[in-house]
Amino acid sequence: MNRTSCLLLLCFLVAGYFIYPLVLPKGKENDAGIKGEEQSNKDGNPDSSVQSKPADPVIYATIVHNILENKCLSCHGEDKQKGDLRMDSLAAMLEGGSDEICLEPGDIKESFLLTSLDLPLDDDSHMPPKAKPQITPEEKRILTWWVAMGAPEKTKLSEVKVPAEITAAIATIKTPEEIKMIAHAKRKQKEDKLAANKANRKRLQSSWDAINAKFPGSLRYVSQDDTILTFSTVSYRKDFKDADLAILQEIAGDISGLDLSSTVITDAGLAQLKGLNNLKNLKLNDTKITDEAFKVLAELPSLETLNLYGTVVSDEGLKMIYSHPTLQKVYLWNTKVTEAGRQALQEAMRKRAKTEKTEDVTDEEKARDKKPEVFLGVASV
Q1: Tens of pLDDT along 4-61?
Q2: Which CATH class name applies to 206-375?
Q3: Model pLDDT for residues 237-267, shown as the tens digit of each residue
Q4: Which of 65, 80, 240, 251 could form a disulfide with 263 if both were Cys (CB 3.0 to 4.6 A apart)?
Q5: Helices (H), the chain
Q6: What residue segments make up the domains of the chain, in order of their start?
């Protein structure tokens, strides 16, 4: 190889060293100008770095198409075309399907993309179908705005006047990658809960066996999906005594419901309820308890429903639970409690509940909210 050839080869290698990184990008660039790293975590889970939102997105490619991909393309995409309609490109929507005009730029009343959203949910032509995730009010607002302005394909957000309500709506839109990440997080949360429940049930198994061996059918799980327990003496009544409560000590923190109605439990026996910190529902109706029982009841931190009908409790005893932090319902029929005592307890409970309210309570929570109640007459429990 002569001197000239050597110099040419050297120049070629040097040039390649500097130019190669510039012509080989890390990821692809789509029509909206979004560059992605095209990588995932080692465990195959979605990675938040897969795709980032551009500061000045193309309205169709980055915003509108994301809505369609999340809610429409499972039925109107590359793999499936219900009604011969594809919605995975602007050209396909303009072409329409076999029955309807999918997209008429500038005409929101003639675009089936929009009119189908207003059909009754049970209508066969409603989109998306009833069983699928529905278009949100924010997504509908964006689609309507985009169609009304002429359904532009290349226009960027900075190139048009964007109303405040559209800006707010755009902020709610998630990319397919973000939706995948959320779905993955939910699956992981469910898997973790199942694993925790399995471990808890294994921990509770010996106590479960011992209690149900002595009092068959008395101890149950609230549902198949958790490890919260309820204990009921409904089949044993007069055979269940103070000493028998000791059998619950090892699982005290796992019990949310306790039915001791019509047993021969006394005030002395109730001392063994200390430690039932997650107990929400307690039935002591038709037992021998007196006002002394309130010393224990007042110390049950999670108690919500208390049934005392058919006992000898009185107005004086109720005073000990005036400031109970979680109590919502108390049943006092056929006791020594007077109407004045009932009202005093109810007012104290409602005053406490009102004090706990904050400005952060949502409208949905307000709608669900019910005022604490104390019943002196017959009421369903």
Answers
A1: 454 444 444 334 433 333 333 334 344 333 333 334 444 445 444 445 567 789 999 9
A2: alpha beta
A3: 999 999 999 999 999 999 999 999 999 999 9
A4: 240
A5: 3-23, 65-71, 90-95, 112-115, 137-148, 164-170, 176-214, 267-270, 294-297, 315-318, 339-356, 363-368
A6: 56-174, 206-375
